[in-house]
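Amino acids appear as letters; backbone shape is given numerically. Here is one record.
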Amino acid sequence: MTSFKFIHTADIHLKNINDDAYDTFVKIISLTKNKNIDFLLIAGDLFDSANPDKHLVDKVKELFEFINNCRVLITPGNHDPLVYNSPYLAEEWPENVFIFKEKLSFVTLGNIRFYGRAFTSHFEEDSLLAKIKLDGSYANILIMHGEVTTSSMYNPIPKNLLDEIGFDYCALGHIHKPIANAAYTFPGTPEGRGFDEIGELGIVVGYIEKGDVNTKFYPISKKRYVIKELDITNLISHDAILSSINEECTSSKDHYRIILKGTVKTSPDTKVLESVLSPYYAHMEIIDETVMSIDYERLKKENTLKGIFLRNMLDKMRNEPDNRILAESLMLGLKAFDEDIEV
């Protein structure tokens, strides 16, 4: 059997030619060209909507023409389903592009059979995959958008059905974080859009040789969304906190959410920290989850509003020791006495 190289991607969610997702898609096309990739597999949600901007569609077609020696196989997903006004139906695509339609089908290219089926609405509660018999003289690859489960609004694909059919590789889409195992692969979205899509994001590069499929994850995103927890217990100044944050944040292109932890005598001013750091990063937000270091015995003896508040709250907490709301209210109230914050 002849050897082939492929790229498996999904969930690019193209909206326009001016966003990071488009820039990353261009990188995928360039990699496809430079690495002489034979097949580009797009497992759904190439576009973010069923009726994307015409200019965007034209640019995507130009990019596919640029890799005219590579066969592009697309299964429309839940964001860009095969509906009446879909560009997948209304547009004339380059000859190297194959788009799966509403019925489960396959296309034979050399010694490989690619199977797929399109979403025809934004929801597919019944599985788009059916029990089929494969021809073992071919390498058989499934390209599909959905979830590996028995119940879902987004094309439930039963794991036992995948096992029973026995595809050589299942190129799936819809899950935005990379997942790879012996039964199926989700490459994840190649470009994150928020802090629910954190870490390294990219594509899967695969090799088909003598019937065997080998893959590796290839990071390609323009930026990362990064969440870090930072213990500032022993940091007594804002300068020390700033220095520690800068040590943790290694790329100016990335988006950071820093969660401050630990025990402190004075709460850090997150607005000041953000204003100092923001010019040096694509995005910086800081969340204060520190706990105040308080001398309760001394404070209980104070004949002040703060002391009275503490005594009243401790009395309530003795009656309800497991009430987390009371404990959080105590800490927030004590902070309010020391700082100009809204409660």
Summary: The chain has three domains: 4-219, 223-293, 296-343. The chain is about 25% helix and 25% strand.
